[in-house]
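SEQUENCE-TO-STRUCTURE ENTRY
===========================
What this section holds: a protein sequence and its matching fold, both as plain text.
Question of interest: how does this chain fold, as expressed in backbone structure tokens?
***
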Amino acid sequence: MFNFAVEKESLNQKAPMNRHNFVTIADLSKEKILYMIRMAEEFRKHPNREILKGKIVATLFYEPSTRTRLSFETAANRLGAKVIGFSDAKASSVSKGETLKDTILMVSNYADVIAMRHYIEGAAQYASEISPVPIINAGDGAHQHPSQCMLDLFTIYQTQGTLDNLNIYLVGDLKYGRTVHSLLMAMRHFNPTFHFIAPEELSMPAEYKLYCTEHGIQYTEHTAFNEDIIADADIIYMTRVQKERFSDLMEYERVKNVYILKADMLGKAKSNMKILHPLPRVNEISYDVDENPHAYYIQQAQNGLYAREAIICDVLGISIDEVINDPTIII
């Protein structure tokens, strides 16, 4: 006779014990960040594998996305997993009134890991508290974007050869920009100097400036944006003014074109300086910058694939040694 209790215990013994969520970058130690960078580099060398064959990755996107959603789905496919989910909540039972709790519990019946983007701050944390499978935060409101931060860290390391002692200029929408909030917290381990360049309406929120003070992070605030201001930058991180976060469209119109990076502003740039942008851009980086050797935002977006391959494997309990020695690599 089938013994359900014995079978359940057997299944539990087979399940990896080190599965975990990826909800906030603030939880990652310096050692863990460098570990994830090394893992992303392994996937850059060999992105095509079958290490996740038989696994299912769910992507639940309550907000529009191109790069984040497609890179998560591409990462899953390149690792041999299958993908389910939705790119528009209106095409799901959310349109019928289903709660986030019920959606997460239902989808966890079908998937081994869930990557989700939500417009409410803290939604990913809530999902992680109720989900029996790992949750990856693909952006929650104006709060955090830890997977973008991981690819940003990988890109900075890739271009600078280090994360230590860098001058990082954050430009544009620092109020609603969840990517810059995550980057600021992750860099606390590496003695950065930040320069916040934003109009008063979009300045870095007080809570993040307090975070800098509490963690000994040096920062300077500017409203001017010109070649002299950015001459000492190692990284210029441009951001889009996020129209969807504004309740007052008149305010958006006043600030949307305040800072535009143009090629003629790069004459005094350091040779190692790279320009990053989480994308999409509207007009904050002129197209004449694209062919400049300092431009690196397209390569940065490509790095999203490798970083998200690393994140998916890590939350499922797959170690870097297993990645390095993976026999399923497809050359």
In short: Residues 156 and 163 are 7 Å apart (CA to CA).
